Amino acid sequence: MDSELSKDERMWGMLCHLGALAGFAFPLGNVIVPLVIWMIKKEEMPFVEDQGRESLNFQITVAIAMAGCFILSFVGIGVLLMPVVGIGALVLVIIAATRANDGERYRYPWALRLLI
């Protein structure tokens, strides 16, 4: 835990992760909401810059996986994989948000590191 982090930094870091839940409300919300938070806060809060980039990398990975599941749904297997990807992403987002709120720099497993 980074004791130097302010309550605001931890909150915005957590919101970078929780903002991805907007994907359940509208298409690509899982990428758009963390992107907006990251773009607004990255200059003034290094923790938010780090966690926002991490959240975006993971959500882009999830979007690619869901697109692959959609394509595979034409042969049947994608219908089974789509809920697995969705539930896995939900669980990891909750873990990441909790850790970010505690001031930890969380790293998602299996995330493509596209934004460096």
Descriptive overview:
The protein is elongated and about 50 Å long. The chain starts with 6 loop residues before the first helix and ends in a 15-residue tail after the last helix. The relative contact order is 0.18. The longest helix is centred in the middle third of the chain and has 27 residues, at 46-72. By secondary structure, the protein is mostly helical. Helix 1 (7-18) packs antiparallel against helix 2 and helix 2 (29-41) packs antiparallel against helix 3 (46-72). The protein has one domain (7-101). The protein contains 4 helices and no strands.
| SSE ordering | HHHH
Shape: elongated
pLDDT average, as an integer?
Answer: 93
Residue runs with pLDDT of under 50 for 5 or more positions: none
Between the first and last Cα atoms, what is the distance in angstroms?
22 Å
Fraction of residues in helices? 55-70%
Total strand segments: 0
What's the total helix number?
Answer: 4
User: Helices and strands: which structural class?
Assistant: mainly alpha
The largest sheet is: none
Bin the strand percentage. Answer: under 5%
Radius of gyration using CA atoms only: 15 Å
Our count of domains comes out at 1
